[in-house]
Design brief:
The protein folds into 2 domains: 52 residues; 195 residues, Jelly Rolls (Sandwich). It is α+β, with helices and mostly antiparallel strands. The longest helix has 50 residues. The protein is 21% helix and 36% strand. It has 2 helices and 16 strands. Strands 1, 3, 4, 6, 11, 12, 13, 15 and 16 form a 9-stranded antiparallel β-sheet that branches.
Length: 258
């Protein structure tokens, strides 16, 4: 092969390699730009969420649409969104991963009318505890929590029970407000230090003040593990069989502005 032909062949190969290299660099640059854009968009979303909540930090957000971030034991996801108890042991349990001393839990519910739907004396349909065993009659004296009840004992209303057992300051309030099972209600429970409050649709119904601070970590949905003191409701009957928990369960670290 002459030197001229060899030179031309090498030149064409170098040009081809340069073109391929340019394509690779262009593709990599495009991918990096897209990754940066996606990351930026995600950061913007998180920033907006944090900004919208002010000092609040979202600890748990569960859409409850076909799946859950919690540990689910039975129940069903309904077609139009949300989760519902279908059996006596059905529940969803969330471990927030740390103790929240200044926070709130918020969710929407529907198909809830205790005076028509209750099947036992007590139903513990929403509660939070410091410890994972979910029983508001513990032997261990450091349990802290709150527990929303429905049932025969409370007619058309609900009972909010809250306590800090280390200071023996259990309190309970029955709210005898009617419910419409065709409506959607927004429930919110807030706690800050020694104070706890319960809201329905933005209206404050309960304020409890304890002798020591509340520290909460585990959230129970549908039922908990409490064995009622009357030994009639019993462990397997404290679930609420009709309530539908709507999408967008949320727990915040930080006091809401309601």
């Amino acid at each position: 092969m002459s030197r001229t032909k060899l030179y031309l062949r090498l030149q064409s190969q170098l040009i081809f390699a340069a073109v391929i290299g340019s394509c690779i660099v262009s593709s990599a640059t495009s991918m990096l730009a897209r990754a940066n854009y996606d990351s930026s968009a995600n950061n913007i979303t998180q920033s907006n969420l944090a900004e919208a909540g002010g000092v609040e930090q979202v600890v748990l957000y569960d859409a409850l649409t076909k799946t859950t971030q919690g540990q689910r034991h039975g129940g069903q996801f309904v077609v139009d969104g949300g989760w519902q108890v279908t059996g006596v042991e059905d529940m969803i349990v969330y471990d927030l991963g740390r103790y929240i001393e200044n926070g709130s839990a918020e969710l929407e519910v529907r198909n809830f009318k205790p005076d028509e739907q209750s099947t036992h004396y007590r139903h513990h349909f929403l509660s939070m505890f410091r410890n994972p065993w979910g029983n508001h009659h513990p032997v261990e004296n450091q349990e802290i929590g709150w527990d929303l009840h429905a049932g025969f004992n409370y007619g058309e209303g609900v009972k909010m029970l809250s306590w800090t057992y280390d200071a023996n300051t259990g309190q309970s309030t029955v709210v005898r407000e009617a419910w419409d099972k065709n409506r959607v209600y927004r429930l919110k429970v807030t706690w800050q230090g020694r104070h706890l409050q319960y809201f329905r649709d933005g209206v404050l119904y309960v304020t409890h003040t304890h002798d020591s601070d509340m520290q909460l970590r585990y959230l129970f949905l549908g039922r908990d593990f409490t064995v009622s003191a009357d030994l009639v409701t019993d462990f397997k009957n404290n679930q609420y069989p009709a309530l539908v928990v709507m999408p967008q369960l949320r727990v915040d670290n930080g006091l809401p502005t309601d």
